[in-house]
Amino acid sequence: MTSRPDELADAAEDALPVLAEIGADGELARAKFLLARAYRDLGQPEQALELLDQVADFCATERNQGGLGQMREGAAEILDELDRDAEAAQRFADAAAAYGAADMVLEQLGCLRRTALSWLWAAEAERAVGALNGAEQLASVIPDTEPPAVWALAMLGYDAARILANTGSAPEALVRVTPAAERFRQLGKTIEAAVADVLRRGRLLLDMGRHLEAQRVLTAALKTVPAEADGPRGELTELLSRVVVS
Fold first, then answer.
1. How far is CA 181 from CA 4, 39, 71, in A?
2. What is the four-CA torsion angle of 89, 92, 81, 233, rounded to 10 degrees?
3. Could you give the percent of the chain with pLDDT greater than 90?
């Protein structure tokens, strides 16, 4: 199978009528999914969305909840790229429900988290916090013993801090982001940990007037960031310049 999206699109478009004629419904759905991916890569989001909805309908008919979740999540990501945030939030929520029915807990958690973020970007703060509460309730029963779970919980903590900081709950945001940074470090993700410290923890402490604590967090983070990570290092330096310690 070709990896070039234009060639993939041509091959899939040629295959669709043949598969439809012989009644190979499963292969037809797979070809539509591959074509949707190609259309997305080619900058044709509306065509991709239409195909993903068709494949989602097939998955629902086949009672393939995992596949349904995947199609809804893919559609939500496209809508997110188009800044159609309210629609993206609903699709992420639909994906989470399907993943939940398939007992795919980490995928469900990820989509609940992204539902909350999309509602935030749609300026629906109450819905964002409500979706976040649902995600945190699910997260409370997920053990953080395996790397995929640790990553999922770290991302939830980081995004929870973003949501709460943007909805006027800075102290609660600080509670969420501190363990998130530690989980990133647990996985050896030093840049992600530094970003959590920079964008959430250090900035939150500064905004709350806790400059000495902010200085300690930001200075420690700066020591762990690789020299080539210009973005995080620049933000750390900028935030440190705002520290006022008497």
1. 37, 36, 31
2. 90
3. 57
